Amino acid sequence: MALVGTSLFVPSASASPLPPGTQPQLTVKLLNANGSGCRHGAGTKLPVDAHVLPSGAVMVRYRGFSVSGNDYKSCVLFASVATPAGWTYQIPAVDNQAVVSLDATETASLSTAMWFTGLKWTVRDTEKVVGPKTGAWNTSAVPRPAAWAPCGTSVNVSVAETMRVAGSSTSTAGLVATTFDPPKWRRC
Hints:
Radius of gyration: 17 Å
Shape: elongated
Pfam family, one: DUF4360
Organism: Actinoplanes lobatus
Protein name: Secreted protein
């Protein structure tokens, strides 16, 4: 995956045919981020940033996405995605890195949804952790069945993350990062 655009991403692929043996690359541009977990004002910088990992995965980092007991916050990321001509892709998993500080029997849950514009959900998953727990909490949402982007067209991708904490205000959880695993490719 390659990142593009003024806020997060740089181009790396064109729609021209690829030389034999060349690995395709996605061209991704973050269009917007909305929600209580990624709130920003008009004309201000998005409260997320992203970079490409050496594996080809894309990691989105959040600033200020935290929630205290008996509350929730969410963030929906909207991105345009272009693929090289003659190829389609799937994202095999969406991984999340969170931190929690939960008192005994109190819980945090993280719901992840991802979809291609105009298509059904490709990922829909909720994971929960029960206290007492303090420290890192990692989740992974896998599409079942695997969903391929439509061939011959570029579509937008949306990802929604919702973090909830049940319990006293001393229990907290925060979403640190969402990583889109390196795409799997096939010819159309």
